[in-house]
Amino acid sequence: MDIKTSFDARFARIELDLVQKAREFASRHLDIPGPISISAHRLLLQDACRSGLAGIEVPANFGGASASFSTRMRVCEELALLHAGFAFSLVNHHNVVSRIAQSQDSEARRRLIEAMLDGSRIGCTAMTEPQSGSDFTAMRTEALPTQDGWILSGAKAWITNASLADVFLVYAQTDAAKGADGVAGFIVLADDIGFERGHPYSAAGIEGMGVGQFTLTKCAIPNDRLLYPPGEGFRAAMRGVNQARVHVAAMNAAMVEYALAVSLNYAGSRQAFGAPVIEFQGLGWSLANVATHLQAMRLLTYSAADAIDAREDAQSMAAMAKKYANDTTMQAISACMQAMGAQGITEDARLGRLLAWAKAFCYTDGTPEMMNERILRYMRKARRNGP
């Protein structure tokens, strides 16, 4: 029994059904050889929502499945097997729905959740800014209190789904002197006065993610759209980042699985010097190394997912999973390309696109260097606390 099958064996029937739905959705819709337009991307997201893939962790009383984080991770992994960019986009939308559903109930929020579950409204999370990427507390987007709400001003950049979203979870600073304790989270709508969407980004590795930017100019937000009050915003964002790191690691594993399957198929059928090229030890061993790294990647990733479901402190485990995935995936896909010779760099092989996505995932939700810092911080803390 392989690691995926063993991991899935613990799932309840509804969770297994969601993983299977993701597998079937990917097979039907995501076998896409080239770039997709923003309009086609939105239609795909709507189709996925109608298939039930936007409410995995959303409570059943809101119309969701009340499934585990591990289920969400496995759904993401199955989608990434054929299109990692779309998988990243959908999970970003799901995260916003889930967070709104976990907040204080109201009729307005119920209507918003319903629209996001059926795909008529698409969501995104906005943390990164033009002047501050990984340094979250250095954000310049500010939120000033008024008698009946807040006024938001600032800019967000490199935001997944920003080029097509309708609902934005925006993090802003309410009091710079308080640092992290001043960060709050707000629901901003694309039709709010003062919201202006910028041009989508065009770069290798972000195809299918809807990556864009926007500005807020004295954008008035009522109090009932304050999702995380000052003091809660930063902690909520960091919990989300730990989960996102595990998603990224799972998507990397899916890409390596795909690359390995393509290269094994080629190397098993390509003849050279009277034998399949996989019989040549140098080439065969390189693919054996890829298979070993894939198993190790999944063990780290699934262990981190288990920790999140158990509500344990998963910061170091999520960092290790993402770091190992980032470090390994680039090398693994390159090895698979090398095993295919010139065929490995053709568009038909699709490995070049995987390599670009793998590089992009080195930047999302923290670079490998940042992961090293998180791991080192955990090691120092463990040393102080003793065995």
From TrEMBL:
A Pfam family per the record: Acyl-CoA_dh_M
Family matches, as Gene3D superfamilies: Acyl-CoA dehydrogenase/oxidase, N-terminal domain, Butyryl-CoA Dehydrogenase, subunit A, domain 2, Butyryl-CoA Dehydrogenase, subunit A, domain 3
Record's keyword annotation contains Oxidoreductase: no
Span of domain Acyl-CoA dehydrogenase/oxidase C-terminal: 231-377
Keywords: FAD, Flavoprotein
Superkingdom, taxonomy of origin: Bacteria
Family as reported in the entry's similarity comment: Belongs to the acyl-CoA dehydrogenase family.
Family annotation (PANTHER family): ACYL-COA DEHYDROGENASE (PTHR43884), ISOVALERYL-COA DEHYDROGENASE, MITOCHONDRIAL-RELATED (PTHR43884:SF12)
Protein name: Acyl-CoA dehydrogenase
Organism: Pollutimonas nitritireducens
Organismal lineage: Bacteria, Pseudomonadati, Pseudomonadota, Betaproteobacteria, Burkholderiales
